[in-house]
Amino acid sequence: MTSTFPSISISTERLVLRPLDTDDVPALAEMMNDEQIAAWTDVPRPFTEQSARTWITEYAPAERTAGHGLDLAVTEFLTQRLVGLIQLTNTDWHVRSTELSYIVAPWARGEGYASEAALATAQWLFGDQKFERVELRTAADNTASQQVAQKIGCISEGVLRNACIAHVRTDDGGWSDVRTDFIVWSLLPEDIEGADGHLADTGGFTQYPDWN
């Protein structure tokens, strides 16, 4: 049984999910400097192009090779523009479980891209990779992320109290850490059987023999 994810491209009606490439450096750096992303993630602040290059050329390949997870660029099918990221982390190959998270560029929000990309990834995990559980964790105040989890069929399992560190702007323009709760969600293969047709219809998978 494999213990690493393959280099994969997943296509949907509107999106292509693929491995990150160095051509994504400028767009990734711009996206990750968004205030909302800085508030809900632990990415470096500011997020420089060197930070983006290190993520793409070092961090993401190392995570996949070690079997820990997978990072996928989410791009528009028609324009090939980077609209977000899908990350798989904390992967347990014995249990066949992984944690999924998503980030969407500010200009692309409100289009349903996070739901479409997350559900397509889950379908690939359950189908091609034979996974049995996908877990999501959303900060208690991050209602947009919670709406994505609900839309793709996730079940709320409970709260991890005081387990999340979010970030807020200070009066001097810097950032300060604040503690909040994590809401834990799960998605099982049977949970997506009734997903909306336009979400559930993925275009297919393409494996790359060697990426990064």
From TrEMBL:
Gene3D superfamilies: 3.40.630.30. Residues 15-172 form the N-acetyltransferase domain. It comes from the Bacteria. This is GNAT family N-acetyltransferase. It comes from Streptomyces edwardsiae.
